Amino acid sequence: MTETIRKTIKDSAAMRWFVLILISALLFSTYWFQDFYGGLKGLMESEMGFTSEEFGRMIGLTTIANMFGMIIVGGIILDKWGIRVAGLIFGGMAVLGGAISALASAGYFGQDHSTMLNMMIVGRIFFGSGLEVICVVATRTIVKWFKGYELALAMAINMGFGRLGSAMGIALSGDIAGGHVSAAVSFAATLIAITLLFFVIYLVFDIKLDKQLKAEKSGDADEDEEFKFSDLFKLISNKSFLYIALLCVSFYVAVFPFMQYAPDLLINKFNFTSELSAQGNIILFGSSTLGNASVYLMFFIFAIAFSVVPGKIQEKTNRTIYFVVIIAAFIAYIYGIHTQLQLWLNNGQKTASLIPVGSIFFTPIFGNFVDKKGKAASLMILGALLLIFAHISLSLFNNVYLAYAGLLSLGIAFSLVPAAMWPSVSKIVSESRLGTAYATMFTIQNWGLGLFFWGIGALLDFVNKGNITAIRNGEAVYDYTIPILVLVVCGVVSIFLAFKLKRADLKQGYGLELPSSAIAPRDIEGFKK
Q1: d(Cα 304, Cα 158) in Å, to the nearest integer?
Q2: Would you state the pLDDT for residue 224?
Q3: Is residue 203 one of the residues assigned to a domain?
Q4: How buried is 509 (Cβ within 10 angstroms: 0-12 exposed, 13-18 middle, 19+ buried)?
């Protein structure tokens, strides 16, 4: 007797990847809004009179609601009422936060310094409350559509979209601003609103998939258990989950806050330019902004071409030919824009974007590696080592080539750890509790981010307190040595936690070192915990 296997729309590779694009668009815009202020720090000081501490306070307070449980609330809403409700509520909050920030920067609530600062902080708090839950929604959606398929690769490409948003936000915000902060803020806010509409389109397919899955389970007696608050305590008492959650915060506090200050560091310490000369612009359809943006889009396309397509080519000869062609095309593209790139590599904002650009290239490649070969915990250790090298290069040395190497290393680390970390969580936690698990991780992470976003700015003002007036008059520059050295400590902590995670997995048998398709030891009969 043959059993009929019911197919759902997620069994279609084309549909899975189309859904990934719709979901990732929202992540792209929110990451743009999260990081684009990094390219405007100098302009905010000159046009709006912000200090480094005030800049750090505005960025740091983005996380305040999340520190006190907003993401946990979002995760519970996600687990109880699903992707659609959570996505619309928290996507709407991000849009509202963007709108408030845009109005505040334009002086709508008042043009005095304190009013603009406070209302921009209010906007960032609303935005931040939505941002992290959107990340949880995106991750949970990808598990729903890709579990059993190309999960790690899909998560890596999704993160690549986020990093693309970060890179373009940092690099292009100055171009878009044109000397006025409000223009860049309004653009970033509009971008979130547009991509929320993409999420609304996705809901049509989500509803259809749920109907198909419900029909598929109609004869199955097992139902998902109702959420209980005791689930939070079970998560935190799980050693593997605890280590990966702490690793998440120790790693990300050494990356995300740094990205906000990286352009200013390169300008102050390595004498990079704060404005790109006309010769450095790439013109597309008469627009330098579109032309410069196209560079990041091309890098992303090449990253996908290097990581996704080769796995679909079976014959070794054809695969070799493909690699030769794509490498030749990449070299030709780089040669075609090499004059502009030389100028970009002397500009603070453009060079700082090497961090997310590196992750755009390497995250899909490492995600593909994790899917096929595993070694997730080992990759997290390697990523932490690269993190330490990056911050030592940028803090203790004044060599510009070491600075480039440090930024590139940070970009690779920024790819290795997330590509290995997020799929690993889905091995440790059951699918019905993933929303709560990711929300718990993001909440812990936000405590660290809030402290470091604000703390680096305050520490920067403190260690330079004797030179603040001279810095404002252009007679001195910020000394970033001590603030960046603090981030080296975060890298050391990350290595310790990654080793602890690897040892815990050996005992608990989640199979973090195994490929995505392999059966975890704990699921094999006879495994002893």
Answers
A1: 11
A2: 47
A3: yes
A4: middle
pLDDT of residue 221: 42
Query: DSSP 3-state helix, strand, coil percentages of the chain (rounded to 5)?
Result: 80, 0, 20
Which H or E run contains 217? none
- E-strand stretches of 97-140: none
Assign 3-class secondary structure to 253-276. CCCHHHHHHHHHHHHHHCCCECCC
Instruction: Tell me the pLDDT tens digit for each residue of 148-171.
Output: 777 777 887 888 888 889 888 888
The domain that holds 104 is classified in CATH as 1.20.1250.20
d(CA 241, CA 510) in angstroms, rounded, equals 11
Query: Looking at residue 6, what is its pLDDT?
Result: 63
Q: Let me know if residue 128 belongs to a domain.
A: yes
Helix (H) or strand (E) holding 430: none
Would you state the pLDDT for residue 527? 55
Q: Supply the pLDDT for residue 306.
A: 77
Provide the token pair at 251: 């790693």
Look up the domain containing 247 and give its range: 12-209+231-275+347-518
For residues 495 and 254, give the distance between their C-alpha atoms in angstroms, rounded to a whole number: 13
**pLDDT at residue 223, as a whole number:** 46
Give the three-state DSSP class for 220.
coil
83 vs 94: CA distance, rounded Å: 16
The CB density around residue 190, as the number of other CB atoms within 10 Å, is: 15
The whole-number pLDDT of residue 151 equals: 77
Could you tell me the sign of the dihedral formed by the alpha carbons of 340, 343, 348, 351, in that order? positive
- For residue 71, is it within any domain? yes
Which of the residues in the chain have pLDDT under 70?
1-6, 216-232, 307-312, 435, 516-518, 520, 523, 525-529
Q: Which residues pair with 347 in a beta bridge?
A: 273
Retrieve residue 431's tokens: 């699918």
Domain assignment present for 225: no
Q: What's the rounded Cα separation, in Å, for the pair 498 and 321?
A: 38
Domain count, the chain: 1
**What residues contact 518, with CB distance under 8 A and at least 6 apart?**
374, 511
